[in-house]
């Protein structure tokens, strides 16, 4: 196992898949000559050339639609949308073309595109560069949504997504590209469905995904040390379809649930997980589940306001203590 | 076009007219649901372009007025009608409907119901064809009103920058839903808008199938020879409203009468009669035979086919048993 950064894991996955299959291409703003805003496509332009590593015009709906059309006849495009905020512009093609074409053609056509995009709140980027949109993507039939929390997942999910015959949206995070972690040396394909226990525990399940998995792990450490509460942390690396069995198994074991999400609460991952708990294992609960979510505001520029809008490990700790009456 | 070809073309355009008129009847009878956008008046457009292209080899994509384009690519009219009836034997197994006819085997890549949606998809198909070294081209048929979507401009730009083998055919029927073009569009001649992307463009009479064929031949040759995209504007008119839910009250009767005199089928028929290639009796016999075929084969097939099973409601949402979904593949 080599230790590498999250962006290096993404770069390696694309490099290996491009070497294997000449129909794998990479498209996006500044992915080529500039090597990618977050370096995820570094070096690929020099190695594979302008026909396969394509610097696009700033036309998100246009180039996303173009990639989808190419995928209809066997091309395997990996689209990088520089910020998930810009993906709003490409929603028409993602939802109306990629997600629906298999169904409305009676299974004749499929759009095996991969759309990668950082979708978190970084540092003072303001309202139009800080939105979290995973809640929007996960509500659409015909689209897979995954969100890697580690370099290993980033590598293995991107490899699997490129080979998978469905359209896959990969929700990344601006603040995680330099995170280090172990990545298997050979080909490794991470599942595109399911969840995993990132830390086993007995007393309460903390559900997280992407960056919030790390808040949950930090909170679990603190709660174990200072309050003797043994938290289980479940990494919901797949947001669509959510892992009903995994959610049920953990809640049936701990009987308590806290869901941590960086996005605002309404119509979010937390609401959906609580709905699944109600449907699958309501009578296992010893306490009402809680959500730790962002404030329902456009993200402000001022650093204090921005921090106040977005949850953290501390908020997860507070939610657990509240649940235990402490 | 040879005389034999012209006779076949006349028959095919008349078939298209009668097919669509029969759809109208079936809709009134409530055999067809949803929205239904019909093609009468515009037959020479799809016909003339596909005469110049290689149906079944070249890739075609369009909007929701798509029945005839699918049939021109080689789709079985029985499967198209069955799709309108929502049957399992339909071209999209009853999951698509009128606006989503697909026949991938014949390279008909679908009808799409978001105006302007197919522009970038067509460019993408062209990108794939170029990567694969194919001599097929991508052909996108859309109406004039689609050109007011951003995808028009984004796609023309990319098609030119990347020199993609795509032919954009604009069927200019002068109305975007119920709004006349000069009330919605700053530049009424659509081919003029394309010069901003340095793409060759032409505007011709879309009611004369021979004129369409000649112009399309130039366009198709340009694209197939690797010179990049081309834009062909065909001036045409639809006889019915935008869709079946359109009362068509917004058009002047004089305008309708004027275009009615330029019917693409009558223009070719009269030319063939004048040249002594066919008689009016031959034409009537052809019409009778087409009406019989539509009733005894196509409608019968659609009527008698089974509906999809509700047990298969969730089929086709995602790929079945994709090995990479579960992970652990080596």
Structure notes:
The complex is a heterodimer of chains A (326) and B (330). Chain A has 326 residues and is of the alpha/beta class. Chain A folds into two domains: 2-183, Thiamin diphosphate (ThDP)-binding fold, Pyr/PP domains (Rossmann fold); 196-323, Rossmann fold. Chain A contains twelve helices and 14 strands. Chain A has a seven-stranded mixed sheet with strand order 3-2-4-5-7-6-12, sandwiched between helices. In chain A, strands 9-11-10-13-14 form a five-stranded mixed sheet, with helices on both faces. A two-stranded antiparallel sheet of chain A has the order 1-8. The N and C termini of chain A lie far apart (42 Å). By secondary structure, chain B is of the alpha/beta class. Chain B has a single domain, classed as Rossmann fold (3-Layer(aba) Sandwich), CATH 3.40.50. In chain B, strand 7 (201-205), helix 9 (209-224) and strand 8 (230-235) form a beta-alpha-beta unit. The N and C termini of chain B lie far apart (56 Å). The relative contact order of chain B is 0.16. The model of chain B has no long low-confidence stretch (mean pLDDT 96). The chains are: A alpha/beta (326), B alpha/beta (330). At the A-B interface, helix 3, helix 4, helix 5 and helix 7 of A face helix 5 and helix 6 of B.
Largest sheet of chain A: 7 strands, mixed
Structural shape of chain B: globular
Per CATH, the superfamily of chain B is: Thiamin diphosphate (ThDP)-binding fold, Pyr/PP domains
| Tally of DSSP helical segments of chain B | 12
- Class derived from helix and strand content of chain A: alpha/beta
Assembly state of the chains shown: heterodimer
Distance between the termini of chain B: 56 Å
In CATH, the architecture of the largest domain in chain A is: 3-Layer(aba) Sandwich
Radius of gyration of chain A using CA atoms only: 20 Å
What is the helical fraction of chain B, as a range of percent? 40-55%
Number of strands of chain B: 8
What average pLDDT do the residues of chain B reach? 96
- How much strand content do the residues of chain A show? 15-25%
Proportion of beta-strand residues of chain B: 5-15%
* Continuous helix count of chain A: 12
Helix content of chain A: 25-40%
């Amino acid at each position: 196992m080599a230790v590498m950064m999250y962006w290096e894991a993404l770069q390696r996955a694309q490099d290996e898949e491009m070497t294997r299959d000449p129909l794998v291409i990479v498209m996006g703003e500044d992915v080529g000559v500039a090597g990618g805003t977050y370096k995820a496509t570094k070096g690929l332009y020099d190695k594979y050339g302008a026909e396969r590593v394509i610097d696009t015009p700033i036309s998100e709906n246009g180039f996303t639609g173009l990639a989808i059309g190419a995928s209809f006849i066997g091309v395997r495009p990996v689209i990088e949308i520089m910020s998930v905020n810009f993906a709003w512009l490409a929603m028409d093609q993602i939802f109306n073309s990629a997600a629906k074409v298999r169904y409305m053609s009676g299974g004749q056509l499929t759009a095996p595109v991969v759309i990668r995009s950082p979708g978190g709140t970084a540092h003072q980027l303001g309202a139009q560069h800080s939105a979290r949109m995973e809640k929007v993507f996960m509500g659409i039939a015909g689209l897979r949504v995954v969100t890697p929390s580690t370099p290993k997942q980033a590598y293995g999910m991107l490899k699997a997504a490129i080979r998978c015959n469905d359209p896959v949206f990969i929700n990344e995070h601006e603040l995680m590209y330099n995170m280090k972690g172990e990545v298997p040396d050979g080909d490794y394909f991470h599942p595109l469905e399911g969840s995993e226990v990132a830390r086993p525990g007995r007393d309460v399940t903390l559900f997280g995904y992407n960056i919030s998995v790390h808040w949950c792990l930090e909170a679990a450490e603190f709660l174990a040390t200072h309050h003797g509460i043994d938290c289980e942390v479940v990494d919901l690396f797949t947001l669509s379809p959510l892992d009903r069995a995994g959610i049920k198994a953990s809640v049936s074991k701990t009987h308590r649930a806290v869901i941590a999400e960086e996005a605002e609460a309404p119509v979010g991952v937390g609401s959906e997980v609580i709905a699944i708990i109600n449907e699958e294992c309501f009578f296992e609960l010893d306490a009402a589940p809680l959500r730790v979510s962002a404030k329902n505001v456009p993200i402000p520029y001022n650093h204090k306001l921005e921090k106040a809008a977005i949850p953290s490990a501390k908020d997860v700790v507070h939610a657990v203590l509240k649940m235990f009456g402490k | 076009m040879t005389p034999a070809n012209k006779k076949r073309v006349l028959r095919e355009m008349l078939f298209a007219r009668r097919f669509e008129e029969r759809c109208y009847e079936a809709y009134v009878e409530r055999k067809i649901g949803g929205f239904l956008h019909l093609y009468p008046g515009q037959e020479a457009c799809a016909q003339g372009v596909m005469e110049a292209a290689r149906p079944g080899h070249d890739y075609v994509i369009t909007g929701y007025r798509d029945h005839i384009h699918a049939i021109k690519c080689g789709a079985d009219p029985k499967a198209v009608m069955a799709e309108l009836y929502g049957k399992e034997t339909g071209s999209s197994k009853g999951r698509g409907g009128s606006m989503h006819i697909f026949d991938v085997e014949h390279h008909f890549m679908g009808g799409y119901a978001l105006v302007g949606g197919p522009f970038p998809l067509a460019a993408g198909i062209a990108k794939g064809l170029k990567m694969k070294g194919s001599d097929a081209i991508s052909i996108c048929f859309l109406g004039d009103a689609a050109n007011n979507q951003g995808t028009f401009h984004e796609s023309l730009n990319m098609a030119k920058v990347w020199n993609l083998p795509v032919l954009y055919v604009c069927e200019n029927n002068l109305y975007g839903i119920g709004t006349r073009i000069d009330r919605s569009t700053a530049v009424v001649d659509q081919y003029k808008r394309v010069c901003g992307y340095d793409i060759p463009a032409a505007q011709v009479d879309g009611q004369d199938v021979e004129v369409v064929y000649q112009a399309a031949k130039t366009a198709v040759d340009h694209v197939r020879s690797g010179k990049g995209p081309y834009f062909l504007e065909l001036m045409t008119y639809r006889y019915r409203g935008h869709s079946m839910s359109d009362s068509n009250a917004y058009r002047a009767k004089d305008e309708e009468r004027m275009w009615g005199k330029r019917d693409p089928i009558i223009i070719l028929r009269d030319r063939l009669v004048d040249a002594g290639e066919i008689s009016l009796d031959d034409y009537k016999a052809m019409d009778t035979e087409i009406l019989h075929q539509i009733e005894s084969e196509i409608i019968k097939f659609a009527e008698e086919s089974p509906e999809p099973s509700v047990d298969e409601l969730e089929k086709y949402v995602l790929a079945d048993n994709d090995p990479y979904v579960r992970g652990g593949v080596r």
